[in-house]
Amino acid sequence: MHLSLYVSACGTRLTASLTGPVSYADRRRALDVVCQRGKAEGIDRYLIDFTLAWHSLGTPEEKASFFHALRDRREFEGARIAYLNCPEGNIVELREAAAQVGFTAGIFGDRSAAIDWLQRDAQIVPARPLAFGRGAHLR
Description:
By secondary structure, the chain is of the alpha/beta class. It contains 4 helices and 5 strands. The protein has a single domain, classed as Transcription Regulator spoIIAA. The protein has a 5-stranded mixed sheet with strand order 1-2-3-4-5, with helices on both faces.
């Protein structure tokens, strides 16, 4: 699995793109990275993109461990998480975790629809200044 993280230009959304074979153990490691980055950036809107990923078999314990870890993530309380091209076998567990933790989960097959949904009711945050101001250095 390869994980790529992108913060939107206005700094309100974190996109996590998973590519290649993805096991539940991979998802758990990705969850840790996404939570750490989201917390550091003060983000509460997430787009989890599985478009270029496919499921890799692991042990049954890995699935239970992943969903247990997701239910323990209090930093997602109040967040909106859009899952793009999410494996269909996960939808029931995702909705249960969302209800337990207190985040809103949306399942989408279209990127534009997912982003529109994430932007609904979002607090408008001013764009980040470019790094060419006082104290910025070019190399």
